[in-house]
Amino acid sequence: MNLNLLDRRRFLRGTGVALALPLFESVGQAWAADIADTPPPKRLACFYFPDGVPMPLREDPAYEDWSWFPHGNGDEFRFTKCTEPLQPLRNDLTILSGFSHPRSRKVHGHSNADQFLTAAATGSGGPYQNTISLDQLYAAHVGDQTRFSSLVMSTDGGTGTPRGTHTMSFNRNGKAIPAEHRPKRIFDMLFVKSDGDAARRLALSESALDDLLADARSLRSTLSTRDQNSLDEYLESVREAERKVEKAKRWLHTPMPVVNAEQLQLNLTPDQPRRYVQTMFELIYLAFKTDSTRVATYQIGRENGVGKSDHLARAVGMNLAHQLSHETKRPGGWKNFAIYCQFLNEEFSRFAMKLKQTPEPARAGSMLDNSLLLFGSASSAFHLSRNYPLVLAGGKNMGFKHGQYINHAGANPQGGAWDGGREPWQKEISHEDKPLSNLFVTMLQQLGVETDTFADSDGTVSQLT
């Protein structure tokens, strides 16, 4: 094997700067043949959104269009307007209901994001102890094969507080792993490897790519026509990501006035928070495409309406995301909440479709076929830590069967608008959910981790494989 060719495949080089590259089929025939005979990479990405989802009761006029969960069961189901953005991925995803973590079912919904990927008994008060998260367990299995063992991201950044986490990822000791929320920092970490002087020169340059174009032209002449097109598309994707990163910085740097929430007047246009979310998804796509990592998490928002993420609702012309979950009893309340959730579904769908439309280099299928995506929340109805809304997408080359709605919640799941009395989480459990850890065991097994258990699992989800 020509190690210079291998290194050249991995990076474009400028003066003190290097840019990671995707795999090209035509660089080193013997090496490419070896790659084609090896199993494809198996990737995992997990996404969390707070505040639950709209769940109007069956008799409510909003039920038909604005309920988050589909109507029907098995492969005979139909999306509502809320989840309609997922329709193009119908055959590549499974919707699940009736799953939750047993040790958190009586915990207020604002306190349970910490345990979404861990299933730990983090509780609502008192001593706090967490355990390893699903992504970090998989990162321990596969992380040494890439430059970064995992990519941990959130809109609010850092770790947050116990029971008010800003991160989905916890290490083997249950310690929170800080999440990165600055797109520029993530971009530079993934794609700009610099010496001491490179940062200064990059600051004077319009693009990190400018200093690499000569090397790109040299590499291009050695590639097949198909790989030349792939290189051009990749460089344009990185360039576009750079543009988005610069624009997203404006939103992050908008001051947060300390005033009554009803009177907040942020100087934002609706496309700024939307662009921010799109940029975070785009960075994960590029990290996967360059095989910089095979494990990523993105906590889109934190619970309890605290932090920058609560203002993502401005992407759909509304004020605060958390507030929408409290106003469902008002006229049009279910629709407003559903339109915000529809926005989140759109951006997740956009990301998954991009993976679906990208062929897996030197192997069969698409990147989505070799990527397993979990998208969901640890609340369903108002502050209710049961019947988590869940989407599992991708992973067909890992043996997953999709195009179905696995409904363990029954025909009349707990829901409805809060009337000011006892909240749903305070009421007696009327239906016993399945342990969400069963799904995690299924995911880990198909990802190649030899395990029969995760936390409080008591089996697997057989319908998925």
Notable traits:
DUF1552; globular; disordered N terminus; signal; 31% helix; 12 helices; alpha/beta; Alkaline Phosphatase, subunit A; 16 strands
Characterize the structure shown.
This protein is α/β, with parallel strands linked by helices and about 475 residues long. Strands 8-12-3-13-14-6-15 form a seven-stranded mixed beta sheet, sandwiched between helices. A three-stranded antiparallel beta sheet has the order 1-2-11. A hairpin with a 3-residue loop joins strand 1 and strand 2. It is globular and about 70 Å long. The two termini are about 40 Å apart.
Strand order of the largest sheet: 8-12-3-13-14-6-15
Q: Count of DSSP helices?
A: 12
Total number of beta strands: 16
Sheet having the most strands: 7 strands, mixed
- What is the number of domains? 1
Distance between the termini: 38 Å
Determine the mean pLDDT: 85
| Classification by helices and strands | alpha/beta
pLDDT < 50 stretches: 1-9, 195-199, 254-269
H/E series, N to C?
A: HEEHEHEEEEHEEEHEHHHHEHHEEEEH
Helix content: 25-40%
CATH topology, what is it called? Alkaline Phosphatase, subunit A
Strand content: 5-15%
Q: Can you tell me the overall shape?
A: globular
Per CATH, the class reads Alpha Beta
CATH architecture: 3-Layer(aba) Sandwich
* Rg result: 22 Å
Keywords: Signal
Organism: Roseimaritima ulvae
InterPro entries: DUF1552, TAT_signal
Protein name: Secreted protein containing DUF1552
